[in-house]
Design goal:
By secondary structure, the protein is α/β, with parallel strands linked by helices. The protein is 31% helix and 22% strand. The chain has an eight-stranded mixed beta sheet. Strands 11-10-9-12-13-15-14 form a seven-stranded mixed beta sheet, with helices on one face. Strand 5 (109-117), helix 5 (124-143) and strand 6 (148-149) form a beta-alpha-beta unit. Helix 3 (60-69) crosses helix 8 (252-263), helix 4 (88-97) packs across helix 5 and helix 6 packs across helix 7.
Length: 418
């Protein structure tokens, strides 16, 4: 992805039409530009990047398509009310005045999620409680009855965002968070989130025609997400429930038309993907997930130690999500482990590109190679670095100047050499 290209191209996608409204797609820190690029390709309008989120415009059909197709979004929110508050009491009055009966009935259920950065409230759970009280009190006043709260499987998921004085009330059209694709039947102890894996793949140089190796696969997430990208399988293909499907204005016929259109674009390409896992039990988990994702024809799971694996391809892209330290036994020497990774790449992966995500930068220094790129990302609450290593076949100078340099007759010189 050419960074920021979406900003130039997005100018052609800003013609709003009747029925268009604002939406907000949330994501992990560091994936905002990737998500914006995805939205542009999908046809979003008025794209604007924020911290861990991208706002955009579209209609109901586009909201359905965004939930079904976006690989790097966590939730798709639909703002329905914005207001300015001076205190807690004023917040309650605004919530109580909203016409919630147009969104849910007495038999329905709801839940409130809150994100706050304000001095009016000390805790997000308290905001959720005040919001719930405002909604329930309105129903009791009007109907002498009220809908119930259901934290696990609500009819309506309400999102509250408060920044200082500014409040945004949104409906969560996704329901269950979007990184739960629906194909992962089992996980290992420290699974990589699907959204993060997809984001790393889209950030990288990997393309479906290039051999791809997931060297420490765990539950198989990197390999499976690569197969979905390669064969244009929408990440929501395995889900049969989104939050918007429970809304009063849900258009099932429209969603089915969009779904069939996206499914019709699935290809039967031949990406070359292998996933290595040292643990027999975890390798079985990865294989089950590969089969659940219906990509067993393109992903080969190999129960083997990465350090004993020797690629038979002269070129390829290697992805590694190695242990950071907290996942390994207390006796494990992380410095030695990361040094072993570097030695392995230098020995057997010449000509390859490698991408490593880690939260243990102290140990990563002992890989012994200088990364050509460092990108800050988050794996859950852990700050990580995504490191790119270009494993030249020979020295970097040889790679740059070609065979003539080996003969002592470089064709060009860098500024530093002049």
């Amino acid at each position: 992805m050419a960074k920021q290209n979406y900003k130039r191209e997005a100018k052609e996608h800003n013609n709003l039409q009747e029925g268009d409204f604002e939406m907000i797609a949330t994501t992990f820190f560091g994936l905002e530009d990737v998500l914006a690029h995805e939205l542009l390709r999908l046809g979003a309008k008025n794209i604007d990047v924020a911290n861990r989120a991208v706002s955009f415009w579209g209609d109901n059909g586009f909201m359905y398509k965004a939930n079904l197709c976006l690989r790097t979004a966590l939730r798709i929110l639909k703002p329905i009310k914005r207001f300015y508050i001076q205190d807690q009491e004023e917040y309650y009055k605004f919530i109580n005045a909203m016409e919630w009966e147009t969104l849910i009935d007495l038999k329905d259920t709801f839940v409130v999620d809150s994100v706050i950065n304000t001095h009016f409230f000390n805790h997000s759970q308290f905001v959720s409680q005040v919001t719930k009280d405002g909604i329930v009190d309105r129903f009791n006043e009007k109907f002498q009855d009220r809908p119930s709260v259901d934290k696990d499987d609500p009819t309506l998921r309400i999102n509250v965002h408060i920044f200082r004085h500014d409040v945004t009330i949104s409906l969560d059209s996704s329901g269950t968070i979007l990184h739960k694709r629906g194909y992962r039947e089992e996980v290992n102890l420290a699974p990589l989130k699907e959204v993060l894996a997809a984001g790393i793949l889209l950030l990288s140089d990997w393309e479906p025609h290039i051999f791809m190796l997931d060297g420490m696969t765990g539950s198989g997430t990197f390999a499976i997400e690569a197969a979905l990208i390669a064969n244009k399988i929408p990440p929501g293909y395995f889900r049969n429930d989104f939050g918007f499907m429970r809304w009063k204005d849900y258009d099932q016929a429209m969603y089915e038309t969009i779904y069939e259109s996206m499914i019709g674009k699935i290809t039967n390409g031949d990406p070359r993907i292998e996933a290595i896992e040292i643990s027999p039990a975890t390798a079985k988990i990865a294989q089950k997930n590969v089969e659940a994702a219906k990509v067993e024809d393109v992903v080969k799971v190999i129960n083997k130690d990465f350090f004993s694996y020797v690629p038979d391809k002269p070129r390829g892209v290697l992805f590694l999500n190695p242990p950071y330290g907290e996942r390994m036994g207390e006796d494990t020497d992380m410095v030695a482990f990361y040094k072993q990774i570097g030695d392995k790449m230098k020995k057997d992966f010449k000509g390859w590109t490698a991408w490593i995500i880690t939260a243990n930068m102290d140990a990563a220094k002992f890989i012994g190679l200088r990364p050509s790129r460092k990108i800050t990302l988050y794996n859950s609450q852990l700050e990580c670095k995504l490191l790119k290593f270009e494993m030249y076949d020979g020295t970097k100078r040889t790679h740059k100047f070609g065979e003539d340099y080996k003969k002592g007759t470089p064709q060009t010189k860098t500024e530093e050499e002049n």
